[in-house]
Amino acid sequence: MAETKLKRLAAALRAFPARPGTQFMEVCGTHTVAIRRAGIHKLLPDGVKLVSGPGCPVCVSPDRLIDEAAALARQGVVITSFGDMLRVPGSRTSLDRERAAGADVRAVYSPLDALAVAAATGKETVFLAVGFETTAPAIAAAALKARERKIANFSLLTALRLVPPALKALISSNIELAGFLLPGHVSAIIGKPAYEFLAARGLPGVIAGFDPEAILTSLLLLLEMHEKGVRRIVNNYPGVVRDEGNERSRAVLAEVFAPADAEWRGLGVIPRSGLELRPAYAGLDARRRFRIVTEEAPPRRGCRCGDVLRGRIDPPACPLFNKACRPDSPVGPCMVSAEGSCSAWVLYE
Amino acid sequence: MCLAVPMKVVEINGDMGVVESAGLRREAGLMLLDRVKLGDWVIVHAGFAISKLTKKQARETLAIFAEMGGLG
Ligand code: SF4
Questions:
Q1: Pairing relationship of beta strands A268-277 and A179-182 according to DSSP bridges
Q2: Which of A44, A120, A208, B38 could form a disulfide with A218 if both were Cys (CB 3.0 to 4.6 A apart)?
């Protein structure tokens, strides 16, 4: 990638004659990190702001999920999870703490690894199924593999979430947005048509890759569309995202899961924004298989992660930011996750 | 957790395969993509190939991962 090309793009962005008070949202946590790491937030033209959205799966999972997983861990169930989830505080404990206290909690890279743990230990093994459309097909495929390999001691504690319904809920709330930087790998699955409702509501969107050049060109495209009143969804990641998305992945997903109402941190319950196992796969549902008793979670004092996820405040507006809450001693999930806005703001100021 | 890395398909056994990038080899599920062939570059996420990518895109993306200090 030519240095000069990046410099030219950066200069074009900086000098773009934008209307003051223009806010765009970067939906995906990986974009948040990439933007801050490259310093792109400092190149925005005056009056233009990027706010973070609800695109960090660890961050949007409600406390209850951790409480449920911890309760299962204490029952002697083997808990497997993507590593990011282990440090996330529930209302009273985290999976890391349960592990230190002797529970069998294991970080895995793939749900297939979780399946291997189940096969190797022969013990009841639960996988914490967290993620968006990028991850959900992988988990559906692992569920099919569990069947095929007749691994009966494997089940899923599901908290999968869908991006478009959350965006729909967001634009109906009172935040003023002029357009969206749309997530690259979620889009590889769901494709461009899944966002047409944004254009229909007068909001442009650009599906973007993750390198600085892709982000800069996508921001320029957004500014250009906003300025000219063009309301379109543009696929600016064509090397990876096909406009129609990945039908095969969607078919596997739909075989195993069906949309269901779901709770998001900061956004509340959003209709049909989550996924639940279809009746034919109910045997894989940890909530059916085990009696999970959790106490009512007290609201977390002071943490404003929910407002951060809605783009209502920037992390430094939280009184705990970089004081009581730091990457090495996180209070809320937005500081725990490598894709969380609060941690990105601390690490790449 | 959303890490998605370009890797090359070097073995196919039914709906599973082996993918490789920067000397790193691992097993990956191939059932989420149509018509995967040996030598294809794919985006691997959570142990599954979820998207094909052009060779040019693969090279650029790998360069970025290298810049960011390895494959995490
Ligand atoms: S800085 Fe910490 S306490 Fe404040 S909103 Fe972010 S995660 Fe929550």
A1: unpaired
A2: A208
CATH homologous superfamily of domain A59-162+245-289? HypD, alpha/beta domain 2 (3.40.50.11740)
What residue of B is the nearest CA neighbor of A110? Answer: B46
Assigned CATH for B5-67? 2.30.30.140
Mapped onto helix, strand or coil, the DSSP state of residue B31 is coil
Q: Tell the burial category of A179 from Cβ atoms under 10 Å away from its Cβ (0-12, 13-18, 19+).
A: buried
Q: Which two structure tokens, joined as six digits, stand for B64?
A: 């970025």
Distance from CA of A282 to the nearest CA of B (A): 22
Spell out a b/e string for A131-165, using b for 16 or more CB atoms within 10 Å of the CB, else e. Answer: bbbbbbbbbbbbbbbbbeeebebbbbbbbbbbbbb
- Render pLDDT for B3-55 as a digit per residue (tens, 0 to 9): 788 999 999 999 999 999 988 999 999 999 999 999 999 999 999 999 998 77
DSSP element (H, E) containing A3:
helix A3-14
Indicate the pTM of the whole model.
Answer: 0.92
> Residue B71 — pLDDT band, cuts 50, 70, 90?
very low
Residue nearest to atom 7 of ligand 1 (CA): A332
Token representation of residue A180? 């969206």
The dihedral of CA A247, A248, A254, A259: what is its sign?
Answer: negative
Closest Cα in chain A, distance from residue B19 (Å): 14
Residue whose CA lies nearest to ligand 1 atom number 8:
A303
User: First-to-last CA distance in chain B?
Assistant: 10
CA of A342 to the centre of ligand 1 (A): 6
Burial of residue A253, with CB atoms counted within 10 A of its CB: 0-12 exposed, 13-18 middle, 19 or more buried = buried
Q: Do B43 and A144 touch (CB under 8 A)?
A: no
The domain locations on chain A are: 59-162+245-289, 306-348
DSSP helix/strand/coil, A276: strand
